[in-house]
Structure formats: structure tokens, C-alpha cells
Design goal:
By secondary structure, the protein is of the alpha/beta class. It has two domains: about 150 residues, Helix Hairpins (Orthogonal Bundle), CATH 1.10.287.1700; about 210 residues, 3-Layer(aba) Sandwich (Rossmann fold), CATH 3.40.50. About 70% of the residues lie in helices and about 5% in strands. Strands 1, 2, 3, 4, 5, 6 and 7 form a seven-stranded mixed beta sheet that branches. It is rod-shaped and about 260 Å long.
């Protein structure tokens, strides 16, 4: 019997289709969900990595913020320090300006004193000239008086001789009268001469008496003349003594006036600074230099004179020529060399764009032999051509080469801040003039402290041999900027020296 399958019911067939469709949908949904889950997992991983990165950036930003806060604190402290330094520099500038005003007032006062001194000196010279003329007249009068006195003495001797002769004649005449009288009496008594003879004898006696009276009158007249001559002689002697005293007084007064004139000339030589012509002004400025060097200790046995020969050393300002400035520096150097009592050896180094030696002997000390050496140095310096910039770094570096051979003092002559040389940070590609001046000046001061003139016992970064500490004295010439004075003053103060500014 053929079996036949039972046809399923409609419900069952539909149910199977539904189940199959549902199963397919489930599988499809699972695959879709799985893909979405994988995608979300990848997104979650990316978000997690992004979160970790964000966390790291946050921590880094936090550290940067802390560092920035620390930098702000340091900058605030640095700002406070700079404000203090600025205040200090402002006080220094105010003090410098006050000193400048005082110096100008003192210069004006000295100019007035100089004018008064000139008038006084002219008056004294006129008085001296008059006294010299009076002295010449007095000497001539003394010579004449001496001649008259010689004549009076000779005349007095002649008068004394005549008086002695007259006295002898009077004595002889008196003796004759006595003898005649005696004879007359004897003749009258003994011989009883006649009256006529008696009258003759009486007449003779009267005649003799008259002659005796005349002789006595002449004698009295001669004695009176002699007394008058003696009085004249006494007067002449007194006049001569008075003349000698006047001569001595005149000599003493003349000597006193000569001493006073020398004193006035000495005072005039060190007085004020203004002259009508170039030559007179240079001489007066020499006296001013001597006055102003009173603030610098004139010491040192082994000395380097470091001279700025940049182009500004012939300028009053940026464009105005000053023909007196460089000659004044030459004269100042000569005066300074003469004024250092302990100077034994020296060297003169010149700096502008490059560094040179005035006498061309590098690393060799020159012997100082007094005023002739100073004059020779001045004359050689006058012939130097002044031009170029201010490379103070190389000049000081060259000067400190002598430290290993007992350099003890440097005298620096300059009118400006360094504008050539190292010191400007490399990140400042186009510095302004003020920036260049600031960084180069700071570099020079730091180099002096840490290398060239470091304290004894500290190692040299450059490996150079070192002697004792070197004193640096600075002389500023006609500088306009207060920064120049502040820089030179600070550098001198940091190295046991002094600063003087000539304007």
C-alpha cells in the first residue's frame, strides 16, 4: 500500500516560515549588533586613548602653569630688583647731576675768583713795577748820598785840620800878645819910656788886641761853621741810615711782593678753565684737570693707561667738532703721569675698532723716567689719528695681559659706552644702539669680575696666570649721556678705583 505523506496543516507550514524568518532576522540583527558593538568598541578605545592624551596634556599644562607661576614669581622678584636698581641709579643720577651743578657753580665761582685774581695780580704787578722804580731811584739817591757823605767826610777832615792850624795860630798869637804885654809893662816900669813910646806901645797893644779879637772872631766863625758841618754830617748820616733802612724795607717789601706774586701765579696756574683762544684754554684746562684729579688716588707702580681713540673723542656731541677735546686728553695724560709719585713702569694701549700700542711694544713694560717720559708720551699721543668705534672689551683684555707681570693699576680714558665687541645675546638679531650699549657694557663688567680681575684664589676660566687685584680708575671726557658716567663710575667702584668726569 502506497503510503502518502500527510500534508501538514497550514498552521504548521506558516509557523515554520515564521520561525525561519525570525531566525534569519535574529541572525541578521545579531550581525548588525555585533558590527555596531565592534565599531563602538573601536570608538571607545579611541575615546579612551584621546582621554589619556587629554589627561597627559592636562597634566603637562598643569606643570606649565606651575612653571609659569614660578617664572612670574621670579619675574616679580627680578622686577622688584630692577626697580630697586633703577631707584638706586636714579639716586646716583640725581647725585651726579647735583655734583655736576655744584661743579658748574664752583667753576663759575672760580672763574670769578680768577678774574678777581687777574685784576689783583695786575695791580700787584703795577705796584711791584712802581716799587722797582722807587727802588732804582732810592739806589741812585743812596749812591748820590754816599758820594756827598764822602765829600762831607773829606771836608770835615779838612776843617778839622784847619781848626787845629787856627788853634795853633791863636795860641802863638796869644803867646805873642802876652810877651808884648809883658815887654810893655817891663818897658813902662823899668825903662820909663816916654809917653809917646807908651802911646805907640799902647797902639801896638791895641792893634795886637784887635788882631787877637779878629782872630778869635774868625776862630768862632770857623768853629760855628764846623758845628754846622757836623750837624749837616749828622743829618747826612741819619739820612743815609734812613735810606739804608728804607732800602732794606724796600728790599723786604720787594721780596714779599715777589713771594706774593709767585703765590698768585701758583694760584692762577691751578684756577679756572676758560680762555679766549685755544692755547690759553688748553693751559687753563690743565689747571682744571689738576684740580679734578684730587678725587682720584694717584697710585701705582706698574700702570697701563688705556685710551679711547674712537671718532667721538674729537666731537662735542654727535655732529659738532671739538678741536680742544683730544689735545686736552693728551695734556691730561701728561699731567697724570707727572702726578703719580710711585710710577716706575707703564704702557699706553689705544682702542677703537681695534687695539694698538702707542709705542708698539706688546707685552713689554716701558720704564718711566720722569717729566721727559710724560712729555714724550703726550707728543706721541697728539700724532694719533682718532677714528672708529669703541671696542672697550678688546682694550681691557689687552691691558689685563700685563696682570701676570705685576700690573697694579689701570687708568681708563673714554667718553662713551662700548658699541663694538661681544655681549649681545644671539637671539637679538637687530639690536638697537641702546640695547647694544647695555649688553656690551654688562658683558665687560661681568668679564672683569669673573675672569680678567677675578678675586685672588678663584680659578681663571681662560686659564691665564693672575697677579694681585688691579685697581681701575676711570676718567670720562665730555660725555653727554648719564649712562656713560654711571657705567664708568660703577666699573671703577667695583675694582677699588675712582671716577672723575671732565665736561
Amino acid at each position: 500500500m502506497l503510503l502518502r505523506h500527510k500534508v501538514p496543516t497550514i498552521f504548521n507550514i506558516y509557523m515554520l516560515d515564521v520561525i525561519c524568518c525570525a531566525l534569519g532576522c535574529v541572525v541578521l540583527l545579531w550581525q548588525v549588533a555585533h558590527q555596531e558593538a565592534e565599531s563602538q568598541t573601536d570608538d571607545a578605545k579611541k575615546q579612551s586613548a584621546a582621554a589619556v592624551s587629554a589627561r597627559q596634556q592636562y597634566e603637562k599644562a598643569q606643570k606649565g602653569l606651575l612653571s609659569a607661576s614660578s617664572d612670574v614669581v621670579h619675574l616679580q622678584a627680578s622686577l622688584a630688583d630692577w626697580q630697586k636698581k633703577y631707584q638706586s641709579l636714579a639716586e646716583i643720577l640725581a647725585a651726579a647731576e647735583k655734583e655736576r651743578d655744584d661743579a658748574r657753580a664752583l667753576a663759575a665761582l672760580r672763574q670769578q675768583k680768577l678774574i678777581a685774581t687777574r685784576g689783583d695780580l695786575t695791580l700787584r704787578e703795577d705796584q711791584l713795577k712802581k716799587l722797582q722804580e722807587d727802588l732804582e731811584k732810592l739806589l741812585a739817591s743812596e749812591k748820590k748820598t754816599k758820594a756827598e757823605l764822602t765829600g762831607i767826610i773829606k771836608l770835615n777832615a779838612d776843617l778839622l785840620l784847619r781848626i787845629a792850624t787856627l788853634k795853633t795860630d791863636i795860641a802863638n798869637r796869644q803867646l805873642e800878645i802876652d810877651l808884648a804885654t809883658k815887654k810893655a809893662v817891663e818897658q813902662s816900669v823899668l825903662l820909663k819910656v816916654s809917653a809917646a813910646d807908651a802911646r805907640k806901645l799902647q797902639k801896638l797893644l791895641d792893634l795886637l788886641r784887635v788882631e787877637s779879637t779878629d782872630t778869635q772872631a774868625k776862630l768862632k766863625l770857623t768853629e760855628l761853621q764846623l758845628k754846622m758841618r757836623e750837624q749837616d754830617l749828622d743829618k747826612s748820616k741819619k739820612a743815609l741810615a734812613l735810606g739804608v733802612n728804607d732800602f732794606s724795607d724796600a728790599k723786604a717789601q720787594l721780596a714779599a711782593l715777589l713771594v706774593e706774586r709767585a703765590q698768585w701765579q701758583d694760584k692762577l696756574a691751578v684756577s679756572s678753565k676758560e680762555k679766549d683762544t685755544f692755547a690759553k684754554r688748553v693751559i687753563t684746562l690743565q689747571a682744571e684737570v689738576e684740580q679734578r684729579f684730587a678725587g682720584i688716588p694717584l697710585t701705582g707702580e706698574n700702570v697701563v693707561f688705556l685710551i679711547d681713540i674712537s671718532g667721538s673723542m674729537t666731537l662735542k656731541d654727535e655732529i659738532t667738532e671739538d678741536p680742544e677735546k683730544w689735545p686736552l686728553l693728551c695734556e691730561t695724560l701728561m699731567k697724570l703721569m707727572k702726578s703719580i709719585p710711585t710710577l716706575q713702569r707703564f704702557q699706553v694701549i689705544l682702542f677703537s675698532d681695534k687695539t694698538t700700542y702707542l709705542f708698539g711694544n706688546r707685552d713689554i713694560w716701558l720704564k718711566y723716567e720722569g717729566a721727559e717720559t710724560a712729555k714724550m708720551t703726550r707728543d706721541a699721543l697728539r700724532k694719533i689719528k682718532v677714528e672708529g668705534g669703541t671696542n672697550m672689551h678688546d682694550g681691557l683684555e689687552e691691558a689685563f695681559r700685563f696682570r701676570k707681570t705685576k700690573l697694579d693699576t689701570i687708568y681708563l680714558f673714554s667718553d662713551g659706552l662700548p658699541n663694538i665687541g661681544p655681549g649681545v645675546p644671539p637671539n637679538i638679531t637687530k639690536p638697537t644702539e641702546a640695547q647694544s650699549n647695555y649688553y656690551m657694557a654688562k658683558y665687560v663688567r661681568d668679564k672683569l669680575k669673573t675672569d680678567w680681575n677675578r678675586p685672588a684664589g678663584l680659578p681663571s676660566p681662560a686659564g691665564k696666570g693672575a697677579g694681585g687685584p688691579v685697581r681701575i680708575n676711570a676718567v670720562g671726557f665730555f660725555f653727554e649721556s648719564p649712562d656713560v658716567g654711571a657705567f664708568l663710575w660703577a666699573m671703577a667702584r667695583e675694582h677699588r678705583g675712582s671716577f672723575v668726569g671732565l665736561r
